[in-house]
């Protein structure tokens, strides 16, 4: 087997040597276990959180331990009655490994959906799709005609949030870091407007594109972008607090939002959430997202990097904004 092991806790950006590629023999399976060969390894901003010794929603990966992560795998050996070699599964919270040994009872065989590629199970039908679906539908509860703003709008979560909000009949404005992403958001994903925060004055652009204020802020980024949105929220607005990616590599304490008081004045509902808490409801979310996908109502992109050896270096794509849609590493053939 080959696995990526955490050797040192990154300070700021991940650097060479923080993770080490290690070879080890595969142990025989115990009763109830299966072995899955990784096809796609999911790379997520939260991988960076797990590498730090911070009080997060899961304990950090220990030094000397295999890096935590999931993706799509195919069963190669099984000592669990419910899964056979050849079955394709979402490995959930597994490891950065060519082969994962997992309890079969925690896995489910993925269905084959007409016209839907396997990579959809890393994006719209995976954890990021469920983050978008439940964060928006369960927390923000959008109503037709409302104005929704989403940051990191062309990423895995954001690209789904924007389109689900459009399906709900909302006016949707996305914030992203390049003209190409903004073009994709308007022309392919069908958003009403997109703002390039690297070249535009975000506040002025929000004033222009949200003439009736903002009812829902799906927050993925934090920092100045979040502040500009908070300043323009409407009364009784909702703000699913999904992520704060602009802070994950910070080495100094990060100040709170400058416009914090506006959350009081506007009676905004701010709710932090972690998608794993929605795990029991995933079937409901996956079913709805699969319907929309098959009806052609959801467009999605996958940013595929080839080669397991490139996993740690590819994580920086998320922090440099190089990915359009869901970032994965293709570890082996489908
Ligand atoms: P994305 O595919 O959106 O990739 C991250 C994107 O963030 C980049 O493409 C980049 O796009 C943008 N970004 C990076 N750094 C900055 C910065 N300093 N300022 C502004 N934008 C930045 O990743 P995900 O969809 O997986 O995750 C999006 C957010 O959702 C993250 O904050 C993540 O932690 C969070 N998340 C939360 C979950 C939960 O359960 N609460 C579950 C999954 C994700 P750009 O070109 O626009 O800069």
UniProtKB/TrEMBL annotation:
Q: Which UniProt keywords apply?
A: Oxidoreductase
Origin organism is Hyphomonas johnsonii MHS-2
Q: PANTHER family, per this entry?
A: PROSTAGLANDIN REDUCTASE, PROSTAGLANDIN REDUCTASE 1
What name does this protein carry?
A: L4BD family NADP-dependent oxidoreductase
Q: Top-down, what is the taxonomic lineage of the species of origin? A: Bacteria, Pseudomonadati, Pseudomonadota, Alphaproteobacteria, Hyphomonadales
Q: Where is the Enoyl reductase (ER) domain?
A: 17-329
For this protein, the record's InterPro entries field holds:
ADH-like_C (IPR013149), ADH_N_2 (IPR041694), ER (IPR020843), GroES-like_sf (IPR011032), MDR_fam (IPR045010), NAD(P)-bd_dom_sf (IPR036291)
Top-level taxon in the UniProt lineage: Bacteria
Alphabetically, the GO molecular function entries are: oxidoreductase activity, acting on the CH-CH group of donors, NAD or NADP as acceptor
């Amino acid at each position: 087997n080959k696995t990526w092991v955490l050797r040192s806790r990154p300070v700021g950006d991940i650097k060479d040597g923080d993770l080490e590629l290690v070879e080890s023999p595969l142990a025989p399976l115990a009763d109830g276990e299966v072995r899955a060969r990784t096809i796609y390894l999911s790379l997520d901003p939260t991988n960076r959180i797990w590498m730090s010794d911070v009080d997060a929603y899961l304990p950090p990966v220990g030094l000397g331990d295999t890096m935590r992560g999931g993706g799509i795998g195919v069963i190669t050996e099984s000592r669990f009655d419910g899964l056979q070699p050849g079955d394709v599964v979402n490995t959930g919270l597994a490891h950065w490994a060519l082969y994962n040994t997992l309890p079969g009872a925690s896995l489910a065989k993925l269905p084959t959906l007409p016209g839907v590629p396997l990579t959809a199970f890393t994006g719209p039908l995976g954890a990021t799709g469920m983050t978008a679906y439940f964060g928006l539908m369960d927390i923000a509860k959008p109503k037709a005609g409302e104005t929704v703003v989403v940051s990191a709008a062309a990423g895995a979560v954001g690209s789904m949030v924007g389109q689900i909000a459009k399906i709900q009949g909302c006016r949707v404005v996305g914030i992203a870091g390049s003209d190409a992403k903004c073009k994709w958001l308007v022309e392919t994903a069908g958003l009403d407007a997109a703002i390039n925060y690297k070249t535009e004055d975000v506040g002025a652009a929000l004033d222009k594109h949200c003439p009736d204020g903002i009812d829902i802020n799906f927050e993925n980024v934090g920092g100045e972008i979040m502040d500009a949105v908070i300043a323009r929220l409407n009364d009784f607005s909702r703000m699913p607090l999904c992520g704060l990616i602009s802070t994950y590599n910070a080495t100094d304490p990060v100040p709170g939002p400058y416009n914090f008081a506006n959350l009081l004045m506007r009676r905004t509902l701010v709710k932090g959430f972690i998608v794993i808490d929605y795990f029991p409801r995933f079937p409901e979310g996956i079913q709805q997202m699969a319907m929309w996908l098959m009806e052609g109502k959801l467009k999605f992109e996958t940013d595929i990097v080839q080669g397991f050896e490139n996993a740690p270096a590819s994580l920086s794509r998320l922090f440099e904004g190089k990915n359009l849609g869901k970032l994965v590493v293709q570890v082996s053939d489908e």
